[in-house]
Design goal:
By secondary structure, the protein is α+β, with helices and mostly antiparallel strands. The protein contains eight helices and 19 strands.
């Protein structure tokens, strides 16, 4: 049954039933029902992922935006593993919201001087759970532990990846589970994959065939590059529908009056270059007057156009091309004269 605290929180059972398709009040007030919304609505403020990269001089840099990993889909579980076999760790994330899974491909590839180590124990657990592996890295010894349950609601990879920086080889040592002393396992070379078996004095070389992970679609797009773009309906400032004329090459430039890079970029843009863009503002109704004011200030003639705010128009036309809520701004979508999607250009690219 629904708890009294659920009703006191101000969440009405019938509203949750409608949005989640739950049949009973008891199901509607299950704790997960308040957080998992297949429509993509976030109950956590669209917490963005953060990816920190280690710096050679020490410390870390937040490169989330530059690397495209700052997803607003409330990421919860993360696994770092070499999914394509090219010697560097890729990232797989499970999200709480509508787009459940995301895989970020690491393209360092052969440029990365890394070593992959897999252990096989002959005593105890065959995956050597709890073993510690140490390699001499460019700045000193680096240790990793085989701990398959170290992630939140996820399992870590049994393969350990060590970066060697400028080094071409390194000595590897293992402290096996239950052992009192370290075992020297010999030398491993950068770019290689090795199987270390307990009791053997040297590692076995493993031939790994690199796979191929396809290029991802640009964030926010619902059509692949090269697809035919369906008819697009936009809105004017008061919500009246406006059909976008295709049949000629068009560059749809999505922006917001609340986005500082958008405003600065358009204000500083050459007027002729700006005139070649079809500006589409993503502001909702309450902010549209500010967008109109800016367009007037920049001397841009013609009617201001906006991404549809009404669900019917957004999902029925523009929604077939993209998810406006996930598309980073500023972004420019290129469509050729035949109505074929050619690509997306972002400000940081």
């Amino acid at each position: 049954m629904a708890s009294s605290s659920s009703h006191e929180s101000g969440v009405h059972g019938s509203a949750i039933d409608a949005s989640h398709g739950l049949e009973t009040e008891e199901e509607a007030f299950h704790p997960w029902a308040l957080h998992m919304d297949p429509s993509g609505t976030s109950f956590n403020g669209r917490q963005r992922n953060r990816l920190f990269v280690a710096c050679e001089e020490g410390g870390f840099s937040d490169l989330s935006v530059l690397l495209g990993s700052d997803s607003p889909l409330d990421g919860r579980s993360l696994v770092a593993a070499d999914f394509d076999g090219d010697g560097d760790p890729d990232l797989f994330c499970h999200n709480l919201q509508a787009e459940r899974h995301q895989l970020w491909r690491n393209d360092l590839g052969s440029q990365s001087r890394a070593v992959t180590i897999h252990l096989r124990a002959t005593q105890g657990h065959p995956e050597a759970i709890g073993a510690t592996v140490v390699l001499e890295g460019p700045a000193g010894p680096v240790a990793q532990v085989i701990a398959r349950g170290s992630g939140f609601a996820s399992s870590g990879s049994p393969n350990l990846i060590f970066g060697l920086g400028s080094k071409t080889s390194a000595e590897v040592k293992v402290l096996w589970p239950g052992a009192a002393t370290w075992s020297s396992q010999g030398i491993v070379k950068a770019g290689g994959a090795y199987l270390i078996v307990q009791g053997e004095s040297s590692p076995r070389v493993v031939e790994v065939e690199a796979g191929q992970l396809s290029d991802p679609w640009p964030r926010g797009l619902r059509l692949p590059i090269g697809a035919k773009v369906p008819p697009i309906v936009l809105e004017n400032a008061v919500g009246e529908a406006r059909n976008l004329a295709l049949g000629v090459a068009v560059d749809l430039h999505f922006w917001s009056s609340a986005c500082s890079p958008c405003v600065r970029g358009l204000a500083a843009m050459d007027p002729d270059a700006r005139a070649r863009l079809q500006l589409v503002c993503v502001d909702p109704g309450l902010r549209r007057s500010e967008a109109v004011r800016l367009l007037d200030e920049w001397g841009i003639a013609g009617e201001a156009l906006f991404a549809p705010f009404s669900p019917e128009l957004r999902e029925g036309s523009l929604g077939a091309l993209m998810d406006v809520g996930s598309l980073p701004v500023p972004s420019t979508v290129h469509i050729d004269a035949s109505g074929i999607l050619q690509g997306v250009e972002r400000a940081l690219e």
